């Protein structure tokens, strides 16, 4: 797609200071255990859904066979509760041998053989959130070395059982320790979420220099209320958060719950639309073995993914609110844009909304713009900036548009 190619230039010429490990110039995509599988370690009763190598291998196979990998969903990440409650005699973290009988290195080999990347979890503090051994200042180096020796590609570094002083030392120290291993490892920091997520307590300039992505806010749960709460927090604080994001450094509003139990079809579109507008990591936590065709089609929407992965790497913003409606705009490469109109309302009648590109500050193209509906996957019409157009947005649903400068030529192709 045009959208993706042109911008590589722009992305390279943008001077910004980000963690210099060459990774995630566009937001990472993949899958993670936490939201769906939690700390389920009961493999006797629930062998297919417990945190163990069977689940990870099953999902890795699905990521390949069902087309996820080829769309960019390449990280498969183990969250908390993978280790034994004790370090080994050399002071190293060790996986629970009942649940990971082949060990993490063998699992990494399995995942790499399928063209995927493996993520693991640790916690800056005395214990992980689930009560497993934490990574204290004195064990940062050995843990970074252990993960690199297992050929891990991503580390989520949580922050339970710690304090602000220790975190301020530990998060940069882990960044340096990962770098010193010589292995490029995507570094996801939960640090800001533990400090309220906002300046002055959180220094986003520093985060961009030491982490590839970071959790700013609370954990997502399997409900629309949770998705909405996250959207509102990010929008309300966008002036502090939006400039922090860019190639190699991303705000993380947490996992995609599309395909689970809590969201309707329209709400699923809404989560995906706003995550794409926010240039958020697209990390699913769901069951790819049993996911519905509807949810799969939404998560595999190529235009939604291309917008999320736009190489300019500029996070979008909520530019207007009107009653239950919110209007979001994200600038893309090549003078293209994405627009999302979210209806937070729950009164049953779909809301009509009339706007124009001029009202959205999209005015430069002399031939006007072509509008594409992202979820209906269709070309709508060509408009001049002043042309009024309207749409109908379902309760707790969204309309998402891709806006491309018209060339004067007739052909339009998604
Ligand atoms: C380590 O940091 C240096 C300097 O920022 C960078 O050039 C190098 O690519 C980094 N290496 C890894 C493995 O992250
Ligand atoms: C971590 O454990 C040490 C040693 O037991 C203790 O001094 C420290 O207060 C603990 N830190 C936190 C944040 O609980
Ligand atoms: C913070 O945690 C560190 C490491 O556990 C501990 O040494 C220090 O005393 C704690 N500081 C405060 C203010 O609690
Ligand atoms: C934030 O971090 C940057 C980069 O490390 C540093 O230059 C700046 O002084 C810090 N800002 C504050 C307010 O501490
Ligand atoms: C409109 O867009 C221009 C550049 O495209 C930007 O400089 C300006 O700040 C925008 N205005 C508003 C109100 O967003």
UniProtKB/TrEMBL annotation:
It is found in: Lysosome. The keyword Signal applies. Residues 313-397 form the Alpha galactosidase A C-terminal domain. Keywords: Disulfide bond, Glycoprotein, Glycosidase, Hydrolase, Lipid metabolism, Lysosome, Signal. One of its GO terms (molecular function) is alpha-galactosidase activity. Its EC number is 3.2.1.-. CDD domains: GH27. The keyword Transcription does not apply. Coiled coil: none annotated. Residues 1-18 form the signal peptide. It holds the Pfam family Melibiase_2. Catalyzes the hydrolysis of glycosphingolipids and participates in their degradation in the lysosome. Belongs to the glycosyl hydrolase 27 family. Homodimer. This is Alpha-galactosidase.
């Amino acid at each position: 797609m045009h959208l993706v190619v042109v911008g590589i230039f722009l992305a390279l010429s943008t001077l910004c200071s980000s963690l210099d490990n060459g990774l995630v110039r566009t937001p990472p995509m993949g899958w993670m255990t936490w939201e769906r599988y939690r700390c389920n370690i009961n493999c006797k009763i629930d062998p297919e859904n417990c945190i163990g190598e069977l689940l990870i291998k099953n999902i890795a196979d699905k990521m390949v066979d069902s087309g996820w990998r080829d769309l960019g969903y390449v990280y498969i990440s183990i969250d908390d509760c993978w280790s034994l409650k004790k370090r080994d005699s050399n002071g190293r973290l060790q996986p629970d041998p009942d649940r990971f009988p082949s060990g993490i290195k063998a699992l990494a080999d399995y995942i790499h053989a399928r063209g995927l990347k493996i993520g693991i979890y640790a916690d800056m503090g005395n214990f992980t959130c689930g009560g497993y051994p934490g990574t204290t200042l004195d064990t940062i180096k050995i843990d970074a070395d252990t993960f690199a020796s297992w050929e891990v590609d991503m580390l989520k570094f949580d922050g339970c059982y710690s304090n602000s002083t220790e975190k301020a030392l530990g998060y940069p120290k882990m960044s340096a320790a990962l770098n010193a291993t010589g292995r490029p490892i995507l570094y996801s920091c939960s640090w800001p979420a533990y400090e309220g997520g906002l300046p002055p307590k959180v220094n986003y300039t520093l985060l961009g220099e030491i982490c590839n992505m970071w959790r700013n806010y609370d954990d997502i749960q399997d409900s629309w209320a949770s998705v909405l709460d996250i959207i509102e927090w990010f929008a309300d604080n966008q002036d502090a958060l939006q400039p922090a994001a860019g190639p190699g450094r991303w705000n993380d509003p947490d996992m995609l719950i599309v395909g689970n139990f809590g969201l309707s079809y329209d709400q699923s579109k809404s989560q995906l639309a706003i995550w794409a507008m926010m240039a958020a990591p697209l990390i699913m936590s769901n069951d790819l073995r049993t996911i519905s065709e509807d949810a799969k089609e939404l998560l595999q929407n190529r235009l939604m993914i291309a917008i999320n992965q736009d190489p300019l790497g500029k996070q979008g913003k909520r530019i207007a609110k009107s009653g239950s409606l919110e209007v979001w705009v994200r600038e893309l490469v090549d003078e293209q844009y994405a627009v999302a109109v979210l209806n937070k309302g729950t009164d049953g009648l779909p809301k009509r909304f009339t706007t124009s590109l001029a009202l959205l500050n999209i005015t430069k193209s002399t031939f006007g713009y072509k509008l594409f509906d992202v979820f209906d996957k269709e070309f709508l019409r060509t408009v001049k900036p002043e042309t009024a157009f309207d749409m109908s947005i379902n309760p707790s649903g969204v309309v998402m548009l891709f806006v491309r400068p018209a060339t004067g030529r007739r052909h339009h192709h998604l």
